[in-house]
Write a structure and sequence with these properties.
Elements lengths: L2 H21 L3 H8 L4 H9 L1 H16 L5 H19 L5 H29 L3 H27 L14 H17 L26 H30 L4 H9 L2 H18 L1 H21 L3 H8 L2 H16 L8 H30 L9 H17 L1 H4 L4 H8 L6
């Protein structure tokens, strides 16, 4: 891969995660404290990301693998997402918000798998290349947390009404338009308009491989509990005394070590193998939730937040690299979309609904949430999964290392 292509893909990843980082960390806080929705209502809204994650990949994979190149489809979807986000940011009633957010997720959820597929199309070696480009997504997430939240929100005062928190949605929309336009300048991923020899819309045959099937099921179960972080962190920080302007910068601390983890991921996979790296990520997740359940002192809460990026890298980036071992040129977009359907689709739907249910259970008089019990719930769930790792991720180290090197297809 040339330096020019690497730079252009790095900009793509920066913008992709700049968009997500602009509103995802504070969306539950916005819905609960600005629009005044209940915990279950917030859970319903956030769970509609499953609709996009399940339905959209069918269209995205069919189009990307047959009629249009992945980078052009990325541009179209981001332009549509920017338009929908502008409308969503102005709506205040529950069901219109649900419908608009569902539409937004349908057109934007596939973009994450598409950006991964675009990188893998150009990668000369997944182990060496993916992490070094994906890290710019992390930098984009950190950048928006500080540029928007700490400086822009800070100038709006301390109160929710005056904090300019809704501006996060408008910033996401503007950046979506920018990425949409930029995507049409990306290097071509190949002529996708040619015939594909009867290839299915989504290459579900990859699930016939027992290793892939077990990995996908395991990642679904893990995603179920992973959603608690995005659902509860912003309201939790607000409840324990963090000002609005400090919430996104505090959450961005987790992305700082992710920068280094992405750079070292290839070496770590080669040295320890996929299973051990995922186990480390799960242990970090448990640590993060337990420190939140303790709810103080502030330095302990911040320490827990700081491991978020490490757990994401060790779990999701590792799983994506491993999964790409089972792709070929024709099915790469489709295989990554299948993975997104399982983790971001089914995992989001069940996870966010359960989060809302748990929050309402542990909400007492005066809308006070018992965050001790709220955070112990996902910690216990991941601990149970951790005990089942030998069953679900029974990969041999030799096989794992060959996969980490990006060799062959299954």
């Amino acid at each position: 891969m040339s330096a020019s292509i690497r730079f252009r893909l790095a900009v793509m990843m920066f913008l992709q995660f700049f968009i997500a980082g602009a509103f995802t960390p504070v969306l539950s806080l916005y819905l609960r404290d600005v629009l005044h929705f209940s915990g279950m209502q917030v859970g319903i809204i956030l769970s509609v990301t499953a609709g996009g994650s399940i339905a959209a990949p069918l269209l995205a994979s069919f189009v990307a693998d047959r009629f249009i190149r992945a980078e052009r489809l990325l541009g179209i979807l981001q332009l549509a997402g920017g338009a929908l986000m502008l409308v969503f940011a102005r709506e205040q009633h529950f069901w219109p918000v649900v419908i608009l957010y569902l539409g937004y997720t349908i057109v934007t959820v596939p973009t994450f798998a598409l950006t991964n597929a675009i990188i893998f199309h150009h990668a000369t070696g997944a182990r060496h290349t993916f992490g070094s480009i994906r890290v710019y997504g992390t930098i984009g997430w950190i950048a928006v947390a500080w540029l928007f939240s700490y400086f822009w929100v800070r100038s709006g005062g301390n109160g929710i009404a005056a904090s300019r928190l809704p501006d996060a949605l408008f910033l996401a929309a503007i950046t979506s338009f920018a990425l949409g336009i930029y995507s049409f300048t990306l290097p071509a991923t190949g002529d996708r308009r040619c015939a594909t020899g009867g290839m299915p819309i989504l290459p579900f045959t990859v699930l016939r491989n027992p290793v892939v099937l077990r990995l996908c099921i395991f990642m679904f179960l893990l995603s179920f509990f992973y959603r608690f972080y995005f659902f509860g962190t912003a309201p939790f920080l607000h409840a324990i005394g963090f000002s609005d302007r400090n919430i996104m910068p505090a959450m961005s601390l987790g992305q700082v070590p992710e920068v280094f983890a992405m750079g070292l991921l290839g070496w770590l996979l080669l040295r320890y193998g996929t299973r051990k790296i995922i186990v480390i990520g799960m242990a970090l997740d448990i640590f993060r939730y337990v420190t939140a359940a303790i709810s103080g002192p502030p330095w302990l809460v911040m320490l827990g937040l700081s491991v978020h990026g490490l757990s994401y890298t060790f779990i999701y980036a590792t799983a994506s690299i491993y999964l790409d071992r089972f792709c070929d040129e024709r099915t790469r977009s489709g295989v990554h979309q299948i993975f997104a359907m399982i983790t971001s689709g089914l995992g989001n739907f069940t996870g966010y609904l359960f989060c809302g249910f748990v929050m309402d259970i542990f909400t007492g008089p005066g809308s006070h949430v018992n965050y001790h019990l709220f955070w112990l719930t996902p910690a216990a769930g991941i601990a149970i999964l951790l005990c089942a790792v030998p069953v679900w991720l029974g990969m041999k180290k030799k096989e794992v290392n060959e996969n980490a090197l990006g060799g062959g297809t299954a």
